Amino acid sequence: MKINLKYIPVYIAIILSIGIFIGGFLNFSSQNQFLVTNNSKAKLNKLIDFIDNEYVDELNTDSIVNKTVDNILSQLDPHSIYIPPSEQVVAAENMKGDFVGIGVRFYIYKDTVAVIQPLENGPSAKAGIKAGDRILYADGIKLFGRKLPNDSLSARLKGEEGSQVKLTVYRKSEKKKIEFKLKRGVIPLKSVDAGLMLNSATAYIKINRFAETTYEEFKSNLVRLKKQGAHSLIIDLRDNGGGYMEEAIAIADELLSDKQLIVFTKNKNGRIEKTYATKKGDFEKGKLVVLINENSASASEILAGAVQDNDRGTIVGRRSFGKGLVQREMDFADGSAVRLTVARYYTPTGRSIQKPYFKGTEQYFKESELRFKNGELYDKDSIKVADSLKFKTPKGKIVYGGGGIVPDVFVPIEFENADEAAVYLMESGIVGNFVFEQLDKKRNDFKGLSFEQFLKKMNATDEYFNVFEKFISKHVPGIQLGKSKSVVKRYINAEFARQLYGNQAYYDVVLKHDKMIKIVLNK
User: Fold this and answer.
1) How confident is the model at residue 194 (pLDDT cuts 50, 70, 90)?
2) Active site residue 323
3) Taking the domain 98-188, which CATH number applies?
4) Which site among 6, 16, 220, 494 is 20 to 30 Å from 391 CA-CA?
């Protein structure tokens, strides 16, 4: 799979848009239907019938209807969207928290399914499949050299729980083909990436989205870390585009005292629904810090707002995205769905953090790019807040509405001297693909190394930084990675650690020099 690096900002914008679309209050309901109740609706339905029955050429009226729905929703707000049946399956699976499959992270490398890593305790790992293996056939069906899209490949590897699949694998390190028979199993899609101790008293939990299992994952990590001596807690919501509102509320309940307001919503009829904390909180005392950035949105902002407005903890980072709209998902008979904005949510002090969207969807999502240009990501004084949207917490702290959560402690982005594309480049999939290709050439160089030996090896050389810099400069002239060499090396080393030792190792590398973490630990 080749990626044209000059389109990286476009890729990131698309990814962010998808993340924000997924984020929201998803209240599934089979009772909500579009009813033909007036002449305008009748006219639309009649027009479709005319085209279907009378138009001179053959047309797919389903595609016309889909485009019509898209156009109608585009007149509303950026978060009211139509989801076709094929996309709805993937979106639902992502939010469900698990799927049935063989349990591998894979990468399409030169038109072949290359295993980046078998997932721990998954069917592939138990069967003996290794990182670097190429999956050539699944039940006799050829998977290489066909330029199959990822969803087609995934369909071949997924199936019913307990169903058997025969894989033909080429192991490059041994230069031979191996056949595996394994049974598909339930593979968790973790929404909590890491839960670890930063020192003897400080726990760190990283949440990448709010799915069905997020509260459960958070709770188990919190309990485990408290047993290890955690008296302080850092919750990392950076780049978390949101998800289920209920999961964020449940986590807030663990942090707030009984009867403290977490969030409230207001619909078009002015109906207000308030949600309060209960008595069950597992971390109502102790130092609490929440990390956010410009890509933290929706449910992330609900959690951060609840902590900030109740004076429960400190918000550290940069101004969040600014999504304060509530969506309800309504299903159609063909498996498609519409997510319709049905209310606004407000933080406990009464502020809406929804940023303006009257200039249209394109400008709405480009607003994040403008934060680079106006210097907001580098300088707290560049953050534009409206004095008319000023609110006070119970202890008298000033907080603002109108466009995201403004942090209590501002931390500038680490790439102060780098190109805008370089900022996102280091956390994109390109780094993972680059590392896989390097390991594919030199995997034996790391064989048998302990994690400490690995770190020593990577820190002692600029070899992979130099290769990566040449690779980037060749394809994207003008990006000066050398200006942020230490940060670039950190992300490269971290991705090597992830692919060699697992996801936790990635954070062990990244967090040691993370600017926000350093500020929190030194306060």
Assistant:
1) very high
2) yes
3) 2.30.42.10
4) 16
